[in-house]
Specification:
Rossmann fold, 2 domains, 19 strands, alpha+beta
Length: 382
């Protein structure tokens, strides 16, 4: 029995019919039992699905244990232009087209590898056809930690000119990658001066400190401010090593999801745990991007609205105790807009979009001099 073919068929069926994901996951679990009779039963079920009009139209190019691999373009073609360091920090939603073209330019118009934990090849197709200017795009959808040591998967990473991490739930990335050969190889890619970028959860993992969302329940500002030591405030260290972001924790979908409070709570807790008042928070609004060149100079793009928010208190919070609300003295919050630049070596903002002041008293956040945003009643993943 060809289990590789069977796994590939089920994965393709799941991509075509996501509403039946639980059924297909059960099929995959049965494959791992390596029981011929059950495998034959699954083939029969797939045949029935095909007769019912559920046959997939697009399958991965390769399926391994715990991952799928899609390819578009010529992976053997030479990279057209020189590669340069660059870091694309995208806040989720729809990216500004110019920011992704900036990222592709840093990758020499060559070979882009997209890392995901769910979905299919739709993002790959968008990059290849709509953004354009690349020789090839490959997608690795990684479901399990076992995949992070597969030689075939690692070979894809090794030939990447640029790596882009998609959104979703960053806990999937932390659990499946951290401390693996894949983690090591991504950091080697960065150290070699090749570009990396991420959006939403993909941006969340690019900071030197990461909000891991390890309970897969996205932390809301009210809860984080009420108790920065709460079980859901899962802060991860020593994951990806991106230049200039070693003392930074990032956040995404920032204003629209009212995340100012939770980022301030993350910064305060890290400042206390690391005894380091230079810990910096960087919130990036939805539908915007902050791109950083090899010299540490950040330029901002948006789709007509939104900012990046620099949260760099420079002071320590009042002592953070378990079960007690945060108190944090007055400190600036600086907005980065299309006319601004941010020097990550000094965190100086030229032509800021706004300069506000924040203060937290017993878990209650006040921000003055910054754009007002509607706080949603609940949050989403990442």
């Amino acid at each position: 029995m060809d289990f590789s073919y069977l796994y590939r068929s089920i994965t393709a069926a799941a991509a075509a019919r996501p509403e039946r994901l639980a059924v297909y996951q059960g099929m995959v679990a049965m494959i791992r039992i390596r029981h011929r009779a059950r495998a034959l039963l699954i083939l029969a079920l797939l045949a029935t699905a095909a007769r019912a009009g559920e046959a997939p139209t697009l399958a991965p190019d390769w399926v391994g244990l715990g991952f799928e691999h899609y390819v578009q373009g010529d992976i053997n073609a030479p990279t057209p232009s020189p590669i340069a360091p660059g870091y694309a920090l995208m806040g989720g939603g729809d990216w500004p087209l110019a920011s992704f073209r900036w990222f592709i330019h840093k990758a020499g118009g060559g070979h882009i590898v997209v890392l995901r934990s769910r979905g299919g090849a739709e993002l790959q197709d968008e990059i290849f056809r709509e953004v354009g200017g690349v020789v090839s795009v490959e997608t690795l959808i990684i479901h399990e930690r076992e995949a992070a040591k597969d030689p075939r998967l690692l070979a894809v990473i090794a030939r990447a000119d640029g790596i882009f991490v998609d959104g979703g739930d960053q806990s999937n990335y932390v659990r499946a990658w951290k401390g693996t050969p894949l983690n090591k190889l991504i950091n080697a890619h960065i150290a070699a001066g090749k570009p990396i970028g991420g959006t939403s959860a993909g941006l969340a993992v690019l900071g030197g400190y990461v909000y891991g969302c390890l309970d897969s329940i996205s932390m809301v500002s009210k809860v984080a401010l009420a108790d920065p030591t709460a079980a859901g405030v899962t802060l991860v260290r020593d994951f990806l090593h991106v230049p200039y972001l070693g003392h930074v924790i990032t956040d995404t979908h920032f204003a629209i999801r009212g995340r100012q409070g939770r980022l301030i709570a993350f910064v305060g807790r890290l400042a206390q745990e690391e005894n380091d008042a230079t810990i910096t928070g960087l919130g990036v609004d939805q539908d915007t991007a902050l791109v950083v060149d090899g010299n540490g100079i950040g330029k901002f793009y948006n789709r007509g609205a939104g900012y990046a928010w620099l949260v760099r208190p420079g002071i320590m919070p009042a002592a953070i105790l378990a079960g007690r609300p945060l108190t944090y003295g007055r400190f600036p919050i600086v907005g980065i807009g299309p006319d601004s630049t941010l020097d990550f070596k000094t965190f100086r903002v030229t032509n800021p979009a706004f300069v506000g002041e924040a203060e937290v008293r017993r878990g209650q956040l006040q921000i003055r001099g910054a754009p007002e945003v509607a706080v949603p009643p609940q949050d989403d993943d990442d």
